[in-house]
Amino acid sequence: MYFITVAILTIAQRIYELKVAKENTQNLLSHGGVEFGAKHYWMLVTLHTLFFSGMFIEAFLRGVHPPEIWPILFALFLTAQAGRAWVIRTLHGRWTTRILVVPGEKLVDKGPFKIVPHPNYMIVAVEILTLPLIFGLYYTSIIFTVLNALVLLAVRIPEERRALNWATKSNH
């Protein structure tokens, strides 16, 4: 029962965040925002959809068996949620699930961005690792942690760096 509750609350949070991201995306585009990485966006949507599906499938097939350290894993997951809120609050209307740059806008260099170059990606990585582990869903955790790392390192972060380099050059 705890698994269903936590999973559904997390999915509801993601749906709400997608609504906020969509509004922010439309606003940024209306102010001259330029999108980078649109061709790979489907990978992120598919990865996250399959991640949640994978948790439910594994829970159905193998059952939910929280390990002894589940409170530590849950604390890490909640810390990641706080980090996500910090990122969203820091970026405010500039937070989106897409890579958008508005020419002339100063890059964000406060909050978590002072500490880590891509804080949201680190937070998502912690969530994908810990959420299934809380319930003993080891296969989902391992498979999607690896897939997420591949997409982030091979596709997403290089594209974001390209966008940030473009933004830096266009501002001078």
Element layout with pairings:
Elements: H1 2-30, E1 34-36, H2 41-62, H3 70-91, E2 99-101, H4 119-134, H5 138-170
Antiparallel strand pairs: 1-2
Brief characterization of the structure:
This protein is mainly alpha-helical. The chain is built from 5 helices and 2 strands; from the N terminus they run αβααβαα.
Q: Count the helices. How many? A: 5
Average per-residue pLDDT, rounded, comes to: 95
**CATH architecture tag:** Up-down Bundle
Strand order of the largest sheet: 1-2
Largest sheet report? 2 strands, antiparallel
- Order of helical and strand elements: HEHHEHH
- What share of the residues does DSSP label as strand, in percent? under 5%
**CA distance, first residue to last residue:** 55 Å
The CATH C-level name is: Mainly Alpha
Number of strands: 2
Per the principal axes of the C-alpha atoms, what is the gross shape? elongated
SS-derived structural category: mainly alpha
Low-confidence blocks of residues: none
Q: Kindly give the count of domains.
A: 1
Helical content stands at over 70%
